[in-house]
Design brief:
By secondary structure, the protein is of the alpha/beta class. The chain binds pyrazine-2-carboxylic acid and zinc ion (ZN).
Length: 195
């Protein structure tokens, strides 16, 4: 039997309209909500019931203010997604679907960059991969920001862990258009289903 889950990667304000605003990010949020709606309708359930049959997991980039990926600290990115700030918050339209135990933070340690959400931890220190196993997940749908970085790394780790990965191409945003196209081609060649 197939058990599906949705992983929403880093749909946080700094990647939407903040310091690292991604292209197609607003649209990706809208398309993600439509995708969630389609799952709900398919099952004839109420909004809140969707989580019983189609778990929605969130990853968050969750940096300390002096994270080593920030330019002022020797990294390549402007300061972004600092824990506890508006820029680090998940888009408000997605909040009805956020569950603390299904929210996984990464990049929390100031010395390590962590693009993949796979090893992100919830407030009980359980990893995303671990929870997907516990849920008996076979198929993981992935959307979010940004294609070339956190989305790609998360998809690849999920695949390596044995999940069937479906990347929702209308529900992702990116830093660079060509980078996005190239990352999609690479992921497709690795066996990630782009749909
Ligand atoms: C990301 C750059 C820096 C991402 C995170 O979520 O794709 N990109 N930190
Ligand atoms: Zn980051």
């Amino acid at each position: 039997m197939n058990n599906s889950a949705l992983v929403i990667v880093d749909m946080q304000y700094d990647f939407i309209d903040g310091s690292l605003a991604c292209r197609n990010s607003e649209n990706a949020v809208k398309e993600t909500l439509k995708f969630i709606d389609r799952q709900t309708k398919g099952q004839g359930g109420e909004d809140h019931e969707i989580l019983d049959t189609f778990p929605i997991l969130f990853t968050r980039d969750h940096h300390p203010a002096d994270h080593s990926s920030f330019k002022e600290y020797g990294g390549i990115w402007p300061s972004h997604c600092v824990a506890g700030t508006h820029g680090g918050s998940i888009h408000k339209d997605l909040l009805p679907y956020v569950r603390e135990e299904l929210t996984f933070d990464k990049g929390c340690d100031k010395t390590t960059e962590q693009y993949s959400g796979f090893d992100g931890l919830n407030n009980a220190e359980q990893s995303l991969g671990e929870i997907l196993e516990l849920l008996d997940t076979t198929d993981v749908y992935v959307c979010g920001l940004a294609t070339e970085y956190c989305v790609r790394n998360t998809c690849e780790d999920l695949m390596k862990a044995g999940f069937k990965v479906h990347l929702l191409k209308d529900c992702i945003g990116y830093v660079d258009h060509q980078g996005h196209i190239d990352a999609l081609a690479t992921m497709a060649s690795e066996g990630i289903v782009i749909e």
